[in-house]
From TrEMBL:
Organism, scientific name: Deinococcus ficus
Entry's family note: Belongs to the cytidylate kinase family. Type 1 subfamily.
Protein name, entry field: Cytidylate kinase
Localization per Swiss-Prot or TrEMBL: Cytoplasm
Keyword Kinase: yes
Primary subcellular site in the record, as a coarse category: cytoplasm
Chain segments annotated as transmembrane: none
Keyword rRNA-binding attributed: no
Amino acid sequence: MIVTIDGVAASGKSSVSGGVARALGIPYVSSGLLYRAATLLGLDAGLDLGDPGALLAHLSSHPVRLEPLAEGNRVWRADRELTDDLHSTRVDKGVSVVAAHPQVRAWVDDQLRALPEPFVAEGRDMGTAVFPHAQHKFYLTASARIRAERRAKERPDDIPDIEAALIRRDELDANQIAPAADAQVLDTGPMTLDEVITTILRAVRA
Ligand SMILES: Nc1ncnc2c1ncn2[C@@H]1O[C@H](COP(=O)(O)OP(=O)(O)O)[C@@H](O)[C@H]1O
Ligand SMILES: Nc1ccn([C@H]2C[C@H](O)[C@@H](COP(=O)(O)OP(=O)(O)O)O2)c(=O)n1
């Protein structure tokens, strides 16, 4: 079984996916972390993030491994854990450029499709491009302001700056942001985190 949870930046995908996965007793897979890892490695190597050939060559000589666990995902490059360095404003600013390359998307999708079921997969295009046959599909939305207020609890930046950055990233991610036609769309703005998780579990278990 595969459950897909897609949505825009800071809509609650990771938190909701983790809660749903824990309740179901299965791992969850955060596809965005692979895009973030590719971005971090490119930045650290001083590469042009607009050059997919250079990025893929670097990634082939520095293989990245995603470790999906019920309590969260861990990302490794060889024996160096990258996880804690992936959610930074520096990576946020470059990741949409990296994620726009079809070659990088194929690099991510190949790793996701090799994972053994069952799992919850969260990202942008899990229910459309990567796992179109998933049994349960959900898509999370919320206003940019609400998402910025939530993200502000994790970042040192001001809410207006975060909101502008989220809107910008939504624009940059537009090609992969549309929900699957058969996904249940949830506006998480008026809902608590637990209410979103409960709503999804009720649908999965129905
Ligand atoms: N429905 C909700 N109500 C309140 N806070 C939420 C809700 N969903 C997520 N959050 C919080 O918002 C922040 C961003 O959520 P996250 O899961 O990181 O989003 P995403 O993975 O889509 O970027 C986190 O601090 C999370 O705990
Ligand atoms: N399946 C995916 C997942 C993420 N991406 C891109 C779009 C996002 O800006 C970045 C980072 O994704 P991530 O889910 O970590 O970002 P947020 O947690 O939503 O802020 O990667 C994508 O294009 N396709």
